[in-house]
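tool=predict chain=A
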Amino acid sequence: MDAQSRSLADSRFARFKDAVDRRVGERGIAGIVDMQADLQTLLQSGAIAARLRQELSDLLGDGEQALLWENWNRGGLWSRHGVFLMSGEGWSLHLSRYFSSSSGIFTLSQYACIGVAAGAIELSTYATGESFRNAYFEREQSVQLNRRIELANGEAAALGVDDAAFKVDVRQPTIVVLLLSQSAVDLQWRFDPETLRADSCISARLSDSELVCIGQTLATIDAEQAPQALLELSRHPRHFVRWSAIQLLGKVDPQAALERLRDAVDDEHDDIRRAATRSLAALALTA
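tool=predict ok
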């Protein structure tokens, strides 16, 4: 039995999934922010502790060294977010451990509800300026504090449309439950907690990062097979994936990369157009 099936064997989880599926069906993934009360009910029901107790029982019943880290991958239980509990169309529910720390300030790349199963957190949310464009990283952008929310055991909060960025402060080891939609934007930005100014960004979608990583690996181990795959990747919908593929092409097939650079001068994304123009100018100077 996989992780989702084990969760749904409990009627409390099954009711929660039905409620989320219904709300997402009505409003799309933005409906996640309406699930605060339902998440709070789930937190207070005892279902999560029962789910983990059953998981431990199942693992110990395997007759293996069940508490080794590797075995937490069993049935898809462990994910990059923490303990996977269940999912539906466009959303997922996870259990995660937060240790005593203060995070950076990150833009919200998903619709989310966050609840506390044990411990306490302070959640600070921030607003971005009217000129903020997620897909165009600009270091002059900054955020301003919107609200602070303190959450204790059994409490939940939704991150709404005005909460463009967030920071988590944890003063003791805390177990949180995360109800997350699929990624809703291309990039996740990080802002400096002291200056509140932008300092970096990464892809908001794990799949995009994986595509770039696979392209880099292929270009490194097999330069003959890489060009065609990288040409396809250079037409990807996300601009930073396209640009990475063009750069990799320059290492394995300079002529193909030159042709793509010429095309990229007319790319739909400002950053790609500027980068392609600069690259062609630099190549002309070295010719």
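The radius of gyration is 22 Å. The chain is about 40% helix and 25% strand.
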